[in-house]
Amino acid sequence: MRRGVDGLGLGLGKKLGSYPIAGVGGGLTQMARRVGVVLYVILIVCLLAIAPPAAFAKGAVMTAVVFVLFGLMLAWRRMSARFGLRRCYLYTEGLVVTNLFGGVQDAVAWSEVTLLNRLSGASVFMTFHRIEIARRGLRPLAFLAMGLKPPLVDALLGQLAKNGIR
After folding, report:
1. How far, in Å, CA of 131 to CA of 120, rounded?
2. Whole-number mean pLDDT of the chain?
3. How far apart are CA 126 and CA 41, in angstroms?
């Protein structure tokens, strides 16, 4: 079993933390999950108000589907954390971002960073922070930190400030 990126010899200093990240697919999945929950609530209310034949059975099936999907979401969170899938590893001298299969997608040393662009979005259906790190001579590294106040953002901003990057 693979345990992070510690043994790769990237020379980025001491490990400060491991944080979950997402791509566009993760953001769309979050939005779809929340839209699905809203539709579920609307359908349950309609079943209670209209009371069609076999309303209990229909409601029970919809509830079971919602519980299964919720369980799959929790299982994915646990599995992705355990196997290092879609993670951002923060180090004293840089950061490493892994892909969906746990392999290194990109590694950035703080000495290469020229600028940090951050975009935050918060709505009922999707909350995220888009982080884009501009580097000298290389394409920018961009990823999403999901949630209203993800711990990755504070840790990343703190580490960038220590290294004199705005």
Report:
1. 9
2. 89
3. 18
